[in-house]
Amino acid sequence: MSTTHFLSKSKILSGWQCHKKLWLEIHDPEQAEIDASKERIFEIGHQVGEIARRLFPDGLLIGHEKHLPQALAATEQRLAAPGPVTLFEPALRHAGVLIRADILIRDAENQIRLIEVKAATKVKPVNYIDCAVQAWVLAGLELHPARVDLAHVDNQFVYPGGGDYQGLIAFEDVTDKVAPMLEHVPAWLEEYRGMLDGEVPPIEIGPQCRNPYDCAFLNYCTPPQPDYPVRCLPGGKKAVWQLLEEGVEDIRDVPPPPSRDLPMVVPRRRADQEHPETRRQIDAGGAHPPPVLSTDHCASFCSWVMAA
Ligand code: SF4
């Protein structure tokens, strides 16, 4: 029997992406690196959330972002009052799982509608997991959602100006996709809690580090790099991960085509014309210590190596 680690929805999504990510978030969070781009993404998400709320003018914001007990109490109080209600950021907890739903609506027929807002133009598989965890918590509190929506940015929207964002948000009914997932949530919780009771999982970096979200522990998990890391190759990361799985860490060790089935070709003519010294060094097996390749230079060269 595992310990009942309290888990938020975002922690469960971290575990779904990578067990080690969840383990580090719980046991060693100071290793995370939050860069400015992540904060910007967070800010955009906040702005889209606010625009979505404007579509429900009767909605009540629960608030108490940093005071969970108050947020839970305020949500409970609002839901205890009879009649229709729309809540923004209600806090709900069931079986040690905490959620802050974006929008929760109870209509005049007592039907519950859950809306998860995403600042993206497309729905991803992880978004269904996200909704499933929330719907599971609601069901556990006898608030079975009759409808679950993913609200996202409509890529056909044209901003007319003047602060008019009507039409920016598109709603996708995902009730049928989410419903079959609910029965799996207890097993996920058991799995993650059991994992959290143990040592850090021995997981190496791989495609999961950037999918579905960039992991804040990437630098922590990345082993020491060679002078010319294949990780700096631009373009399709699938090819890079394939190389790493084969044990190829350094660009100079990449086998030349056509011996491999990868989109790796070296446009020699262009390379020779534009960076002959770099090309010569790579062909010669590199120079030690590298006198020419700065990070930018390396990236520039790599943009030839990974040809479309
Ligand atoms: S960097 Fe990759 S391996 Fe490390 S915790 Fe994050 S997702 Fe897992």
Name the beta content range.
5-15%
Shape: globular
- Spans of at least 5 consecutive residues whose pLDDT stays below 50 are 259-272, 286-301, 303-308
CATH topology of the largest domain: Lambda Exonuclease, Chain A
How much helix is in the residues?
25-40%
User: Topology as H/E string?
Assistant: EHHHEHEEEEEHEEHHHHHHH
Strand order of the largest sheet: 2-3-6-7-8-9
Mean model confidence by pLDDT: 84
Structural class: alpha/beta
Bound ions, cofactors and other small molecules, one mention each: iron/sulfur cluster
Please give the count of helices: 12
Please characterize this protein's 3D structure.
With 308 residues, the chain is α/β, with parallel strands linked by helices. It folds into two domains: 7-196, Lambda Exonuclease, Chain A (Alpha-Beta Complex), CATH 3.90.320; 223-305, no CATH class. 39% of the residues lie in helices and 13% in strands. It has twelve helices and nine strands. It has helices at residues 9-17, 19-27, 36-53, 68-80, 125-140, 175-178, 185-196, 218-221, 237-245, 268-274, 276-283, 295-305, and strands at residues 7-8, 60-61, 85-88, 91-94, 97-100, 103-106, 112-117, 145-153, 169-173. A six-stranded mixed beta sheet has the order 2-3-6-7-8-9. The chain has a three-stranded mixed beta sheet with strand order 1-5-4. Helix 1 (9-17) packs across helix 2 (19-27) and helix 10 packs across helix 11 (276-283). The longest helix is centred in the N-terminal third of the chain and has 18 residues, at 36-53. The radius of gyration is 24 Å and the shape is globular. It starts with 6 loop residues before the first strand and ends with a helix. The model is unreliable at 259-272, 286-301 and 303-308 (pLDDT under 50). Iron/sulfur cluster is lined by residues 18, 20-21, 24, 203, 205, 208-209, 215, 217-218, 221. The site of iron/sulfur cluster has 12 residues, from helix 2 and helix 8.
